[in-house]
Design goal:
Layout (H helix, E strand, L loop, with lengths): L3 H9 L2 H10 L9 H7 L5 H17 L6 H9 L4 H4 L1 H7 L2
Helix pairs in contact: 2-4, 4-5
Length: 95
């Protein structure tokens, strides 16, 4: 039953979580389209979102530009959340 709580965590996550992670990374959240990022990370866990932002920081550094919504969207598109990779196991467990 360990996968059953996965849905609960991902459904409860809201924009404040994205703001928190961006602030923790030293970024100003108002510079980002949080509504779009929230929509695109539907089904992602908190740690997956954190890794998207970390990857985005590395990518933007290598491109010598500031972290942006566009960079984060690219990183999101390269990430497959566990809610997708484990969907078949979760379906077998859920009744």
């Amino acid at each position: 039953m360990r996968y059953s709580s996965l849905t609960c965590r991902t459904q409860r996550r809201e924009k404040p979580f994205l703001r928190y992670i961006l602030k923790r990374g030293g970024r100003t959240p108002v510079q980002f389209d949080l509504s779009l990022l929230e929509k695109e990370t539907d089904g992602f866990s908190g740690s997956e979102i954190e890794q998207v932002i970390i990857s985005g920081l590395y990518t933007s550094f290598s491109l010598k530009k500031e972290l942006s919504t566009e960079v984060l969207l690219k990183e999101i598109s390269l990430t497959v959340p566990i809610s997708v990779t484990m969907a078949d196991k979760k379906a077998k467990i859920s009744f």
